[in-house]
Every structure is written in C-alpha cells, then in structure tokens.
Automatic annotation (TrEMBL):
This is 3-isopropylmalate dehydrogenase. Homodimer. It is found in: Cytoplasm. Catalyzes the oxidation of 3-carboxy-2-hydroxy-4-methylpentanoate (3-isopropylmalate) to 3-carboxy-4-methyl-2-oxopentanoate. The product decarboxylates to 4-methyl-2 oxopentanoate. It is an enzyme of class 1 (oxidoreductase). GO terms for cellular component: cytosol.
Length: 355
C-alpha cells in the first residue's frame, strides 16, 4: 500500500518542525508493509514570495488528491503589510476550507515530567487531560466582512460570526462522539448571553444531547471558561466551541502543558485530514534551530491514527515522545535553568532513538 502525504512546511520554524515530523513518520512506518510518498508544496509567505499568492494552484491540486496533509506554520512580519487576501494566513484558511476540515481536534495533556514548566500547581497540572474540538471552517473567520468609509469619511470594518445549523451539528457530532470514547463529559463553550450565533449553538447542543444520553453536557460562557482553564482545568474532558473562541482557548490551554510547542492537532472532515502543530511560525526564534518539534511530531501520531488507521504506530510515536521527555530531553522552551538544552534536530534524534 502506498500513501501520498503532502507536506506544506510554510514559514519561520515551519520547515524545521515538519522536517522532524517527516523523519518520525518515515521511521514509524518502517516494517509496516506500507510506503509513504512525501511531496512538498508551497503555502503561506514562501508561496507569496515565489508565486504571488499564498495558496498556489499547484498546491491546491496536490492537497486534493493526497491521503493526508502535514503543515508546519505560515506567516511572519515580512508579510504582515499585505492586503488581507494576500496574507500567508489567508492561504491557510483557504486550505482548511478547500479540504472541508471542519473539526479541529487539539488534545491538551501534560507530560508529568514537564509539570515544572506549567504555571499550574503540580497536583492540578498532572490532572490536565482535555480534548478541544474547535469548529474550523465557519464563524468570524469566514463570514461576510468589509472595510470601508462611512459618509463622513471615517473608516469602518466588520466581520460576521455566521453559523448555519448544519455547520454546528457536524462539529458537535464529532465532539459528542469524542466525549463518548473518553470520560463522557462535554463542555460546550459559547457567548450565549450576547451572541445570536451562540444561542443557536446552545440550542443545537441541547437538541443533540438527547441522542447521547451517556454524555453529560454542560454549557459555559467563554469568558468564564478562560478563567476555569487556569483555576481548575482538571474538570474538563471534551471542550467544544466555535472557531475564534477555540483558537484563543487552545493557546491558553497549551500553556498549561508547559509550552505551546507541545500541542498537536488534527483537522478532520469527510475526507483528507490536515495535521499541524497548533503553534505559529515563531518569528522570534525562526532560523535558530531551537524550535520544539514535539507538537509537529505528535501531529504525525494523529495522522497515523486518523488518516492511515495505524493505531499501534500512532501509540509508538506518542510513547517515543513520552520516553524522550522522561529521559530529560528539553528544547529551550521546556528547559529549566541549568538543564541541558537540545536543538530541534537533537530533540528529533532523541525521539527517533526510541522508535
Ligand atoms: N497554523 C499556523 O500556521 C499558525 C498558527 C499560529 C500563528 N500563526 C502565524 O505565525 C506568526 C507568529 O504568530 P505568534 O507569534 O502570535 O504565535 P507563535 O505561535 O508563532 O509564537 C508565540 C510564541 O511561542 C513561541 N513558540 C511557538 N512555537 C514554538 C515552538 N515550536 N517551540 C518553541 N517556541 C515556540 C514563539 O517563539 C513565540 O514566543 C503570525 O503570522 C501568525 O499569524 C500561524
Ligand atoms: C494563523 C491563524 C489563521 C490560525 C487560526 O487562527 O486558526 C492559527 O492561530 C491556528 O491556531 O491555527
Ligand atoms: Mg491559533
């Protein structure tokens, strides 16, 4: 069996962490009787530089026929000045939309050895084990938007948080099913005290909960949720929310595990899966070779699990990461004072040594 995986390294630390991911993927499938063909394409700022557009046609064609897509990160100050549709991030949004990956799964689990890097008290940090299900192809990211000038010549701008019933239902279904396979608790996060889109979201959660009597459902307003994630994150099992809220809450949750460099993600729809660490292109450390590759490597585990259905190989990757961390392997973001600091490549070698 041969699979085609499209690699989109992107910008900043993207190429470094995806190089690590590919090495781990290739090692993880050795002896499995399968072959993976990796094909690299342009997305983001590097694509703007080479082709004048963040999501070139060649990349569009390649991803649509792939078995899975791995992405590093896009963006950086160099391209921040461009018009909205010509920014690197616009390429990423178009990619998500084209693949129809409406459910973004972001597991948040602290490794016991990294508890010291977490701002939480030890006993709380140890108990953090959350899956965030973030709606990924709707909401304010994709609603009607405009910039203009009013009659007096003053500037205005708006973005619309639009959700159809179907968009809400399908991501909730993923969330309910995820909860069912875990501790059977679903927290739906919204802003139903203000937003109509949130009131519809809450209504649909209520309706669907009848089909999942084994799942306990609770509703939480997003501002309170942001607080609870810091004060008692151990109460959460599966957390489901709309696109923008999920973006913000997942970066917040990442800090609980010690570093944003640790968190992987899988973006799933009806077809091709997209796998990327949740962090960005980290312009402040780009080119230094010190980025933490573990979020990208753990995304490979999700790819093996969800796109290739190789659960044993996925577990082996996760165990290799856990072993490296247990053994004291630390990139700069994870290291305490006096601890030996590994480069991206050295950390990758440490993970590979356990595979
Ligand atoms: N999926 C993506 O492609 C993606 C995600 C988030 C942000 N971005 C883009 O990335 C650019 C930079 O955004 P930002 O600075 O707000 O967020 P960021 O995630 O790139 O960086 C935030 C902080 O975390 C650190 N960090 C991030 N990943 C790390 C890693 N693997 N190892 C060690 N440290 C790491 C950075 O050094 C920085 O201090 C922006 O253009 C943004 O739009 C892209
Ligand atoms: C770069 C940006 C468009 C993206 C998002 O907001 O979805 C990023 O922050 C993420 O979390 O993947
Ligand atoms: Mg984000």
């Amino acid at each position: 069996m041969t699979y085609r995986v499209v690699l989109l390294p992107g910008d900043g630390i993207g190429p470094d962490v995806t190089a690590a991911a590919v090495k781990v993927l290739e090692r993880a499938i050795t002896g499995q009787g399968i072959e993976i063909k990796i094909e690299s394409h342009l997305l983001g700022g590097c694509a703007i530089d080479e082709t004048g557009t963040p999501f070139p046609e060649k990349t569009q064609e390649a991803v649509q026929t792939a078995d899975a897509v791995i992405l590093g990160a896009v963006g950086g100050p160099k391209w921040d000045v461009g018009p909205g549709h010509l920014r690197p991030e616009a390429g990423l949004l178009a990619l998500r939309r084209l693949l129809g990956v409406y459910a973004n799964i972001r597991p948040v689990k602290a490794f016991p050895e990294l508890i010291d890097a977490s701002p939480l008290r030890k006993e709380i940090a140890q108990a953090v084990d959350i899956v965030i299900v973030r709606e990924l192809t709707g909401g304010a990211y994709f609603g009607k938007r405009e910039r203009g000038r009013d009659e007096a010549g003053a500037r205005f701008a708006y973005d619309t948080m639009y959700y159809s019933e179907e968009e809400i239902r399908r991501v909730l279904q993923t969330a309910f099913e995820t909860a069912r396979l875990r501790r059977k608790k679903l927290t739906s996060v919204d802003k139903a005290n203000v937003l109509d889109s949130s009131r519809l979201w809450r209504e649909i959660v209520q309706e669907m909960s009848a089909q999942y009597p084994d799942v306990t459902v609770e509703h939480l307003l997003v501002d309170a949720c942001a607080m609870h994630l810091v004060t008692h994150p151990q109460v959460f099992d599966v957390l489901v929310t709309e696109n923008l809220f999920g973006d913000i809450l997942s970066d917040e949750s990442a800090v609980l595990t010690g570093s944003i460099g640790m968190l992987p993600s899988a973006s799933l729809g009806q077809g091709i899966g997209l796998y990327e660490p949740i962090h960005g292109s980290a312009p402040d450390i780009a080119g230094l070779g010190i980025a933490n590759p573990l979020g990208a490597i753990l995304s490979v585990a999700l790819l093996l699990r969800y796109s290739l259905h190789l659960e044993a190989a996925a577990l082996r990757v996760e165990q290799a990461v856990a072993s490296a961390v247990r053994d004291g392997a630390r990139t700069k973001d994870l290291a305490r004072q006096g601890e030996n600091v590994l480069t991206t490549e050295q950390m990758t070698e440490r993970v590979l040594s356990y595979l």
